[in-house]
Amino acid sequence: MRKEISCLAIVTLLVLGLSGQGFCMARRPPDPKKSTPKQAESIQKVSGMISGYDWTRSTITVVPTNGALITAEIDKTSKISKAGKLIKMADIKTGDVVSVAYETKGWKKIARKIIVQEKVAAKAATTEKKKK
Q1: Could you tell me the residue range of the domain that residue 88 belongs to?
Q2: Which of 18, 41, 61, 89 could disulfide-link 52, Cβ–Cβ 3.0 to 4.6 Å?
Q3: Residue 109: inside a domain, yes or no?
Q4: Which residues have a Cβ under 8 Å from the Cβ of 88 and sit 6 or more positions away?
Q5: What does the pLDDT look like over 15-71, one tens digit per residue?
Q6: Is residue 14 part of a domain?
């Protein structure tokens, strides 16, 4: 009788042990190498004129050619360029025409790339003076 009880106990423990291991493995966090890749960041683009900026909050406000005002935050990863050269945030002026690529995180719009367009009127005037 004792042998039967001890055999039954061993079998029960074995069954519980094997099923418990399978149960634990099912709840293991996914392997980062095998997990699905993250969705690509949602980058949106807008072109328009700078209507204002707030250097204390590191934001610019753009009036797009079509649509509502966009206020984008500039952070350390934002790239700002003009005529193919990187410039500083302080070099952006009200009235500049820009193209902004931004990412929306929650309610914030984070500028990833800002391209300041060269002023066409000033460029045309210098070209006309050179012709004369």
Answers
A1: 43-122
A2: 61
A3: yes
A4: 80
A5: 666 555 555 555 666 666 665 555 455 889 999 999 999 989 999 999 998 888 999
A6: no
3-state secondary structure of 29: coil
- The amino acid present at 20, given as its one-letter code, is G
Query: Dihedral of the CA atoms 44, 45, 48, 54 (nearest 10)?
Result: 50
Grouping H, G, I as helix, E, B as strand and the rest as coil, residue 128 is: helix
What is the chain's mean pLDDT, rounded? Answer: 79
What confidence tens digit (pLDDT) does each residue in 109-125 have? 999 999 999 876 545 54
- Report CA 55 to chain centroid distance, whole Å: 21
Nearest to 113 by CA among 128, 94, 98, 132: 98
Rounded distance between C-alpha atoms, residue 8 and residue 83, angstroms: 82
User: For the domain that residue 115 is a member of, what is the CATH number?
Assistant: 2.40.50.320
Side chain identity at 82, as an amino acid letter?
Answer: K
